[in-house]
Amino acid sequence: MPHRDFATGDADALPLRLVAPETLDAALEALPEVARGWARAQGFKAGAGAVLALPDAKGGLWGALVGLGDETARRRGRFIAASAASKLPEGTYALDPATDPALAAETALGWLLESYRFDRYAEQFAPKARLVAPEGIDAERIRAIAAGEALTRDLINTPASDMGPADLEAAAAGLAEEFGARMAVTRGEDLLAGNLPLIHTVGRAAAPDRAPRLIDMRWGDQGPTLTLVGKGVCFDTGGLNLKPGGSMALMKKDMGGAATVLGLARMIMALGLKIRLRVLIPAVENSVSADAFRPGDILASRKGLTVENNNTDAEGRLVLADALALGAEESPDLMISMATLTGAARVAVGPDLAPFYTDADEDAAAIARAAARVADPVWRMPFHDPYEPLIEPGIADLDNAPSGGMAGSVTAALFLRRFAEGTRYAHFDIYGWNPRPAPARPKGGVGMGARALLEAMPDLLGLA
């Protein structure tokens, strides 16, 4: 849950004005004389994220100004005003009622996201500035989104010592209990009996208390069907294709897809969307032991397709394959997978964009429009059919790691599409980590694409 909520009551709240350079003069003229003189004496220019506390005539705190920056800064940034939550003096603040409604909603959400702290292992500085929910915004929706994002961040930030497959299962179970969802889990050798061989293969080398499993959660009994599939590789050594130490440092985040779909599921359930939701999470640890799967092995899958395993470090697509095949058997109205799948995606678009794949132009357009509205940037990538032969090795139906090193994200997506065949499908190849602090996005685990998908749900699923 977020560490902060909106402040209650605004009778004594301090005025908070969001100001752009082009509106600065008018904003200053509207201030009380002492506050106006102070702002001018301080040379406040309304630069992006600049904060100025304003005195009253008795030397107390009257309120504050927050700079939005010029047009270029606003185009390049998002949640610019949210950084004020960490910069302002202690107090309860209220936005000017004349604030643009869209800006007020973005600032309110950003304020809660900026106030997030991961404090499980060490005390963290918590912002002391509180914000009254601005009039005219959907405060309950913003709370639900912030809570879902906080869940995602907490799960990703937790190291693998405390976030193995069983811990991820426990997190899903807690969510299911909170919202009255149903959950079933298939573990260990039962994966073979349940025809989920790829999940078992990838996770079988882990210690018994970190056995592989498939988490299957269902919620809702009316409306269109949505299946979310999240990669839950709780730690990825690379298997026998062992990663170098530098590449292993952030592998606690390799369950970022699972964390993101659980965060999105929390948003959906908290808001009571009229859909029938299913969440599938293959939760494994890709370890090294005498029982580890090997390069060159031919692997069986739930769908019946055989896979030549040419890299044990391309394990995420293997566990997703069985989960997607299972999900596709029910022919949901829409199936979405989210995974920290390829380094190639990060090379292509960096850590800030969530690349996604879909064959449906209408779905792509709906997701892109929604992403722009809620400042959750995405970028469509191609399911490029001419690359299909790259994932067909000849000795087996599919190759999980084609040689050549080109189009790695595209070939991974094409591999997954084979297992979602016959279903309306979108795949997100996310990073799940913010390498540098930014407004509303501290360094560390971060959700990508979830808010865009939530915003797009009415168009994607025909919700009223």
TrEMBL record:
Stored CDD domains: Peptidase_M17
Pfam families given in the database record: Peptidase_M17, Peptidase_M17_N_1
GO cellular component, one term: cytoplasm
Keyword set, alphabetical order: Aminopeptidase, Hydrolase, Manganese, Protease
One example of a Gene Ontology biological process annotation: proteolysis
GO MF entry, a single one: metalloaminopeptidase activity
Organism domain of life: Bacteria
InterPro entries: Leucine_aapep/pepB (IPR011356), Macro_dom-like (IPR043472), Peptidase_M17_C (IPR000819), Peptidase_M17_N_1 (IPR048816)
Position of the signal peptide: none
Cytosol aminopeptidase domain segment(s): 311-318
Family: Belongs to the peptidase M17 family.
Protein name (database record): Leucyl aminopeptidase
